[in-house]
Amino acid sequence: MNQNLKTASKLLDDFANFIENRSNLLVVGLEEVFPKILEWHFRIWQNEITFLGKEEKLDEWTSYFATKNILDSIIRRIEDRALKIRESFAFFRHLKDHLDKHKEDSVEANHGRWYYAEDLLQTFYQFFFETIADSPSQYDIWEHYFPKEWKVTKSNFKESMLSRISLYQFLEWAQGRNLSKNLIRN
Questions:
Q1: Do 145 and 94 form a contact (C-beta atoms < 8 A)?
Q2: pLDDT (tens digit, 9 = 90+) per residue, 13-40?
Q3: Fewer Cβ close by (within 10 Å): the C or N end of the chain?
């Protein structure tokens, strides 16, 4: 298993390094590519969290952790492309469908419960908040593509865990941004 994971990790790393050479249609538009990457991300995350904190499984955890970091990188690169092109509808549709399927999925490990939606949205929002203002289709993204359930509204906040995660991620991003500006001034 570990050798297969290492091989898959190397192949994913090669894919990540050359993702800019792939067509937008291949990476985001086709039903087979981005949804598969998201599903691999989910499965790798489950194993990474399952082995978290288990000393006897440190090698396995390290392999899953490294592979998940590569998948996070691929997701951010695909997101970057989706925000730069005017055809980002497919990116948001695939991401929403994936999170709708896995929003309640969690793993009990290392003295706590870990939710997949938090992990994936952290990866998504870290990049999104930094780059959405520069997107040529920022208005269309916000008004038409961005999932309504993720927006922070009074009703969403009460009903949608994804809305609460969105607010938390925004506050984390804003706090980090504010802290870095204060460090520059001092």
A1: no
A2: 777 777 776 666 666 666 778 899 999 9
A3: C
User: Residue 30: phi, psi to the nearest 5?
Assistant: -75, 145
Whether 105 contacts 47, CB under 8 Å: no
- pTM for the model: 0.86
Domain limits, the chain: 2-185
Q: Return d(Cα 169, Cα 163) in angstroms, integer.
A: 10
Of 181, 59, 162, 176, the C-alpha closest to 117 is 162
> Which residues, in sequence order, are CB contacts of 143 under 8 Å at separation 6+?
none
Residue 164 has pLDDT above 90, yes or no: yes
Q: What is the pLDDT of residues 50-73, one digit of tens each?
A: 888 777 878 888 889 999 999 999
Contact 78, 40 (CB under 8 A): no
Token look-up 């999104």 returns: 128
Alpha helix ranges (H) inside the chain: 2-17, 24, 34-51, 58-84, 89-102, 116-131, 138-140, 154-159, 161-185
Q: Rounded CA gap, 31 and 40, in Å?
A: 14
* Amino acid in position 116: Y
DSSP state of 20: G
Measured CA to CA in angstroms, residue 40 lies from 33, 43, 54 at distances of 11, 5, 22
